[in-house]
Amino acid sequence: MTDIAIVAYQQTDAVSDAGAVNEVELIIPVLGRVFEQAGLTNSQDVDFVCSGSCDYLQGAAFAFVLGVDALGAVPPIKESHVEMDAAWALYESILKIRMGHAESALVYGFGKSSPGELPIVLSQQLDPYYLAPQWIDAISLAALQARQMLDQGLVSERDMAEVVARSRNNALNNPHAQLAGEVSVDDVLAEDTYVSPLRKADCCPVSDGASAMIIATVEKAEEWGKPYAVISGIDHRIETHNLGMRDLTDSLSTRQAAEGAGMGQGRVDVAELYAPFSHQEIILTRALGLGEETSINPSGGVLAGNMMMASGLSRVGEVFDRIVSGEAERGIAHATSGPCLQHNLVTVLEKA
Amino acid sequence: MSEEQDVITGIEAPVYLKYNFTAGAAAARFLHQIKKGVLTGQRCPSCQQVYIPPRGSCAACGCPTEEEVEVADKATIQSFTIVTIPIPNNPIQPPYIIANLVADGANISFLHLISECVNEDVHIGQRVQALWKPEEEWDYAMDNIRYFRPIDEPDVPVEMIGKLPVTGWEGSADD
Lengths: 352, 175
Known about the structure:
The complex is a heterodimer.
Chain A: E1 4-11, H1 23-38, E2 48-52, H2 55-58, H3 63-66, E3 79-82, H4 86-98, E4 104-112, H5 118-121, H6 138-151, H7 157-170, H8 185-189, E5 193-195, E6 198-199, E7 208-217, H9 218-224, E8 229-238, H10 252-261, E9 270-272, H11 278-288, E10 295-296, H12 311-324, E11 330-337, E12 343-351
Parallel strand pairs in A: 2-3, 2-4, 9-10, 9-11
Antiparallel strand pairs in A: 1-7, 1-8, 4-7, 5-6, 8-12, 11-12
Chain B: H1 25-35, E1 39-43, E2 50-51, E3 67-71, E4 74-83, E5 96-103, E6 110-114, E7 127-132, E8 145-150, H2 168-173
């Protein structure tokens, strides 16, 4: 099978409100930087472009089409879009290259969540008959999940606070983080609950931002002469939309995706997990069987900044950065979508 | 065994979501200018095309656009349609004409209305000019211009539409 390399990755800062910028203005600076990193000019220099975004976030119909104005699409380019996190746009791009239809691709994701009420907006991704009409917001569903874990003794509030404190401290080294600081476990526990049992710190912030990546066949990456990391596996699995039929305290789909991606075939030095709520990082760590040898969310994860539709791709980008810098040899990136970790994708990256 | 039940063919589940929508930096500057009665586009630093309303990028080249360019309120009809079907909640009564217009000094069209004309005589290449609302009614809106109306200037050949300088068709003829 064709070996595929990540050649470049860039992201914006995660900010609570990007202000009066439209999608093009949000994307264009990050695309400029990612092309520069790969030694390319614009999307004419890659064979395929795939983006991830969701028009519900900013409330603008066909915003993803307007985003194409950032690409330089004359003469026409081969372009696609997923109404999902850009980690799935990466997946589509990998398939495109493996099928032999392209040798290189630009993948980007963007989300401007600040114009709407994100937890309420996300209620509209629930099944349309039983759950969406009840407007059950994303935080309340996560709180139900956390409550189940606490009641079953699978986790303690202190365990959850430890995840938050580690995220805040790790994020001090992440220049793009929205929330970072020398926060202790006791600081977190001293906070009032927000949507019981969750404290506000247990929940990811609402962020605006974008990220972009360039991938290519290993041969093409060698030709470009840039440092790269190899994607040795990628897989994704989804669970039923019926929350009552799932074991919310576990993540079967994450475990299956990791098996499919070949995670177990070597040591995992670093893992970037898309856990929008503190207890979900614990679920994911257990589902993946990660131990002491793995550095988990050294970027601070999405508790430090949650750029909807971009942060999944950013997890891959964070692992790429650490492999290229020599900090890690092998790592995994996880992306999620849907309520309570419904849909999960795992990418395995290795040094070239 | 099973009880006879009515077939359910639909449920009502209305969706209301509220947003604080922002037009974007480029569009916001355009709107500030149109409140002053000025049409302002942006020029691509690479291909030199002028876009109005501007989006902050050149869609062809993919580069950011920053240079602001004032364009004329005279324009050329690039294409048009005569609307004969009433559209719910639209205050304009059919038949009326909606057209893609390229303002002098711009290279891409925007949509606006054509009026004070015989609908059947409207044609591609026809020259038109904006009829503005009274200045005291100007707002951050494209409908500061009520509509465009034909002016007495020779038609622009199809291959020249979208290529006129800000001085207009007659201005370019002097070159």
